[in-house]
Design a protein that fits this description.
649 residues; alpha/beta; Rossmann fold; GMP Synthetase, Chain A, domain 3; five-stranded parallel β-sheet; 22 helices; 40% helix
């Protein structure tokens, strides 16, 4: 189990650095002995509070040492953990607490404590709320509340009286104990808790160790939330198993500056974070003068020719080889230094698809960004491995740990669905009877993913089978394939393509990147006041149209985006428009913006929408806006004419 691994390191190398956290401007370091002591004290404090093996402990807050300590402490007692995104609403917190049957909620600060207090009557089993940041909490005296330090003091006293109790609790743990309930994103319904055991976590960490350039003592940045299974495997499990030095940033707003301070060697982001980083580079170049921009473009071109060329196995010409050190000194190394990625050797992207162009951009800079593919239910399955791989793919298959189960095997169904078996088995969704039988048939797990493979055996992810769309013509198109390529544009933050068996063509709704576009508009001396105002400016529409046309030329004719509109407001997880991992809730959006979608296909040039919204202070109201609709290229004229004809009929 993870606490047994922690104890092993604490005994063998007590002074070895395990964790580092920037707090109030100062980096604080914790050795394995320090982590073991903190975990032991909080575990015994929970034991004193009556927590029993098999119960559920919930944790909500940013990535901080206390978040990890609380999880390891729960595991030490034989409990399972549900970690929650810190920006969840009270209603979402209530659902997860109730569904997971949590008995204790560990909360970071006043904001998270307030959510727990708001919903305690909606979850019958929660007995305590324990918080570790006491700022602003001086006036709270509810008996359900307890400080993290206070619970640790109780644990310290117990350890002084009985120095063998903690070891006995840890020794009682077994690899097949449930460690984590990792909730799905809930794109098509309520989230479900996937059961993950210690064996599952250690198996998947070993898959990474065997497949990627990771070494003991590697400096790792913990940024993605532990509510995502990937961080459970990377930071929480591989951080102990390898082990790594796990670094916690001061806060989400300080991540980029903290990365530059640390020059970390390993980190994993979701596609949106890598895309945001790429957009920030491109946005800075918008502000650069023509000479600087020209030098940047020249350096990136040389970097692409050499670094991406070698990756593809292409020969690199003598002139490019001679120019590369100059391009590296003038452009590529300064870019890596600006991003804080000078020492990065294990960079990965997972959780959703990302445009190959983003990977190429980072590789051109000399950043070895690799794709990882898997699912919460099955764990990590493939990744880019070795010195050569195809950036259009999600890589070669990983190897399961021999003690976890039989080797990984895979096959494709007649309709292209990926089915796998081997490794750590899928144990079902928590409190969902029949969930194993619904996903596993004759030993094969049905992933629901449409994939293909290259001649070299690398896997190519296409789309969720349930998300593949068919047009009236009978031709199909994969929405994510189109969307990921358009998200490479620095001006586009999110995009949702639409089109089904009742429609003749593909259309799109665009969520502009306000930060980048506002700088572009200022540079062009285009006035605007709000997000809505900027999104509906004709100059912005023309710019977005050019971006769509650029991607359209690489798509089959039937999959090209013919018409589009810009969302008049930023997509918001609090409104249910996105999941907490920023995946589109397509069904919800299609209903919410049905009037706008119908306008795209009815040949209209503007539609007035009126949708309900919830403000930050909890007030509810309506958002009204006149949204412009735009054509992209002449290829859509026949479809538009047909749409207008049906509208007249």
């Amino acid at each position: 189990t993870l606490p047994q691994l922690l104890r092993k390191h604490a005994h063998a190398n007590p002074n070895r650095l395990s964790q580092r956290h920037k707090q109030r401007g100062i980096w604080r370091e914790y050795s394995f002995a320090d982590v073991q002591r903190n975990v032991r004290e909080i575990a015994l404090g929970m034991h004193q509070a009556g927590v029993k093996a098999g119960e559920t402990i919930a944790i909500i807050g940013e990535n901080e040492p206390q978040h990890y300590w609380a999880e390891y402490a729960a595991h030490a007692l034989g409990c399972k953990v549900v970690s929650m995104y810190p920006d969840l609403t009270s209603e979402e917190v209530a659902y997860l607490l109730d569904d997971s049957e949590a008995v204790i909620l560990f909360a970071q600060d006043q904001e998270q404590v307030d959510k727990g207090l708001d919903v305690r009557n909606k979850t019958l089993k929660m007995r305590h709320i324990v918080y570790w940041d006491e700022t602003g909490m001086w006036s709270y005296n509810d008996p359900i509340l307890q400080t993290f330090d206070g619970m640790q003091r109780q644990g310290r006293e117990i350890h002084q009286r009985n120095g063998k109790m903690y070891d006995a609790l840890v020794d009682a743990g077994a690899p097949d104990d449930i460690a984590v309930l990792s909730y799905t994103s809930g794109t098509t319904g309520q989230p479900k808790g996937v059961i993950l055991t210690h064996r599952f976590l250690i198996d998947n960490a070993q898959r990474l160790i065997d497949s990627m350039d990771v070494k003991p003592g590697m400096e790792y940045l913990s940024y993605i939330a532990p509510s995502w299974a990937t961080e459970q495997i990377y930071g929480i499990t591989m951080g102990l198993g390898l082990p790594m030095v796990v670094n916690f940033p001061e806060g989400p707003e300080q991540v980029l500056s903290n990365i530059r301070e640390l020059a970390v060697e390993g980190m994993t982001f979701a596609p949106r974070q890598w895309e945001s980083m790429a957009s920030s580079v491109q946005a800075h170049m918008l502000d650069a003068g023509p000479i600087r921009r020209g030098v940047y473009e020249w350096g990136m071109k040389i970097g692409h020719t050499v670094n991406v060329g070698r990756l593809d196995g292409k020969p690199v010409g003598l002139l490019d080889r001679l120019l590369f050190p100059i391009a590296n000194a003038l452009v590529l190394r300064p870019l890596r230094d600006l991003l804080g990625l000078t020492r990065l050797r294990c960079a990965s992207c997972g959780g959703a698809t990302m445009a190959p162009d983003v990977f190429r951009m980072f590789h051109a800079m000399g950043i070895p960004l690799r794709n990882i593919y898997g699912s919460t239910e099955t764990g990590l399955l493939t990744c880019h491995q070795g010195d050569r791989f195809d950036l259009e793919t999600v890589g070669h298959w990983m190897k399961a740990h021999p003690e976890a189960g039989p080797p990984l095997e895979w096959r494709l169904s007649a309709d292209g669905e990926l089915q796998i078996r081997g490794g750590s088995p899928f144990l079902g969704y928590y409190r969902r009877e029949g969930s194993v039988e619904s996903k596993v048939k004759d030993g094969w797990f049905y992933t629901g993913d449409a994939v293909t493979k290259t001649e070299l055996g690398e896997l190519v992810f296409l789309e969720r089978l349930s998300d593949l769309k068919r047009l009236r013509s009978g031709e199909t198109f994969p929405p994510q394939f189109v969307e990921t390529r358009l998200r490479f544009s620095p001006f586009i933050k999110d995009i949702m393509t639409v089109g089904d068996e009742t429609r003749d063509f593909v259309a799109a709704l665009i969520n502009i990147d306000m930060a980048v576009l506002s700088r572009w508009a200022e540079d062009k001396r285009i006035g605007f006041s709000t997000f809505t105002d900027l999104s509906q400016r004709p100059e912005v529409a023309e710019l977005i149209s050019q971006e769509i046309t650029r991607v359209n030329q690489f798509l089959p004719a039937h999959a090209r985006v013919k018409r589009f509109a810009n969302f008049p407001k930023e997509l918001d997880p609090d409104e249910g428009e996105l999941t907490r991992s920023r995946k589109l809730r397509r069904e919800f959006l299609e209903v919410r913006y049905a009037t706008l979608i119908n306008g795209l296909y009815d040949g209209l040039h503007a539609v007035r929408i009126d949708i309900p919204v919830t403000y930050q202070d909890g007030r509810r109201g309506n958002f009204e806006a006149l949204v412009s609709i735009h054509d992209t290229d002449a290829a859509g004229s026949d479809h538009l004419g047909a749409a207008r004809s049906r509208g007249r009929k």
